[in-house]
Amino acid sequence: MAKKDNNYYSMFSDIAGDAIVAARQLEKTVKNYNPDKIEKLNKAMHEIEHGADEKKHKMMKMLVSEFITPIEREDIGTLSYMLDDVLDSIEEVYQMFFMYNVKEMRPEAIDFVDLIVRSAEAMKACFDEFENFRKSDLISKKIVEVNVIEELADTLYFKTVRELYTKGKDPMHVMIWARIFDSFEKICDQCEHVADTISSVIMKNS
Fold it and tell me: 3-state DSSP: the chain helix, strand, coil percent, rounded to 5?
């Protein structure tokens, strides 16, 4: 039957893999920042996001015609849109770099992208273990890892924005970077929401 070919767990992992590609590309951009390349890199990131979006649409099309699903169809839909949000938010950072004409990278951004990559990798590990969650000893550890990383991102966000507003002298610079730091933190937040939703699905199906 056609439904046997529709491995939603594998599709989730595939899209989560795109999130890692996007996160690592963001890390590379931040650590080797060149404002002259941002327009081109913004377009490249859009292609990554668009490819993941196409996979999500394919999954939703399959879901509509599916009679039996491995977990509740509502949970499949929720997780797919949450994954999409992660990739959208990474692309949003590139859009900000371009729109706000950011010329220099702040050192705190390097700390943020390190956490974003770690969060995306841990989230992908959750999906890799999702299909066999009843037997996996790793998935709960990875869910916790995503939560720990999000707490680190929160702490970094509060510290960084505080310093930005107390030491920043250019109001426009402060406003722009406050928004960028907010977007950085949001990415880790969204990875945590994905991990927490996976945890809830596991509880419902255990």
Answer: 85, 0, 15
- For 5-42, the pLDDT digits (tens) are 568 999 999 999 999 999 999 999 999 999 999 999 99
- Rounded to two decimals, the pTM is 0.94
**Residue 159's CB: how many other CB atoms inside 10 A?**
12
Q: State the residue range of the domain holding 89.
A: 2-204
Six-digit token string for 63: 């879901």
Q: What is the CATH number of the domain that holds 12?
A: 1.20.58.220
Contact between residue 201 and residue 129 where contact means Cβ atoms under 8 Å apart: no
In terms of Cβ atoms closer than 10 Å to its own Cβ (0-12, 13-18, 19+), residue 69 is middle
Number of structural domains (the chain) is 1
Of 48, 112, 49, nearest in space to 84 by CA = 49
